């Protein structure tokens, strides 16, 4: 029995010796190369950002205000100041990321913040502001919610007038 345990230990130690340490993640301080192009606003196109493969980051149809909101994880309505065209001029961005692995979202946003500083000469600061909000409360007399129909209940058919 002891021989089998010793043999299993040797096999396991040999297999673990073959495993390589994972490569260190690169620093995602900035995109390696990026183009920022103004485009005509196309409401049908919508806006999106994504990684295309391991090294290509693309953002389509973003205003500067929307880029700031994306990069700093803000609601666009909380951003104030800036040039008048900040929420009307749209841009497409194509960028190449460093390293051999795709950056995670946090790293993508870090590189986007650096790009905004470089290309738009962004200077910013945070301040506290008060905003009006809506608050949901239970009405007097308690909630008046009704249970939803169960999936196996037959649908109710209403007459059409």
Decide which structural class fits the backbone.
alpha+beta
Oligomer: single chain
For the largest sheet, list the strands in their spatial order: 1-4-3-2
* Low-confidence spans: none
Topology pattern, helix = H, strand = E: HEEEHEH
The rough form would be described as extended
End-to-end Cα distance, whole Å, is 84 Å
Mean pLDDT, all residues: 83
Helix percent reads 25-40%
Please give the largest β-sheet.
4 strands, antiparallel
Beta strands, count: 4
Percentage of β-strand residues: 15-25%
Cα radius of gyration in angstroms? 27 Å
DSSP helical segment count: 3
Summed up:
This protein is an alpha+beta fold. The protein has helices spanning 2-18, 64-72, 105-120, and strands at 33-39, 48-52, 56-63, 90-96. Helix 2 (64-72) crosses helix 3 (105-120).
Q: How would you characterize this protein structure?
A:
With 161 residues, this protein is of the alpha+beta class. It has a domain of 112 residues. It has three helices and four strands; from the N terminus they run H-E-E-E-H-E-H. It has a four-stranded antiparallel beta sheet with strand order 1-4-3-2. A hairpin with a 3-residue loop joins strand 2 and strand 3. Helix 2 packs across helix 3. The longest helix has 17 residues. The model has no long low-confidence stretch (mean pLDDT 83).
């Amino acid at each position: 029995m002891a021989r089998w345990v010793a043999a299993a230990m040797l096999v396991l130690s040999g297999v673990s010796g073959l495993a390589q340490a994972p490569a260190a993640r690169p620093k995602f301080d900035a995109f390696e190369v990026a183009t920022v192009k103004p485009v005509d606003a196309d409401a049908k196109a919508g806006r999106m950002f994504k990684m295309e493969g391991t090294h290509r980051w693309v953002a389509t149809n973003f205003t500067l205000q929307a880029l700031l909101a994306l990069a700093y994880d803000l609601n666009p309505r909380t951003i104030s100041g800036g040039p008048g065209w900040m929420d009307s001029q749209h841009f497409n961005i194509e960028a190449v990321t460093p390293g051999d692995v795709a950056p995670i979202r946090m790293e993508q946003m870090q590189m986007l913040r650096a790009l905004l500083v470089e290309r738009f000469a962004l200077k910013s600061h945070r301040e506290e502001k008060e905003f009006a909000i809506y608050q949901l409360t239970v009405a007097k007399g308690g909630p008046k919610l009704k249970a939803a129909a169960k999936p196996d209940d037959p649908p109710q058919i209403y007459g059409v007038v």
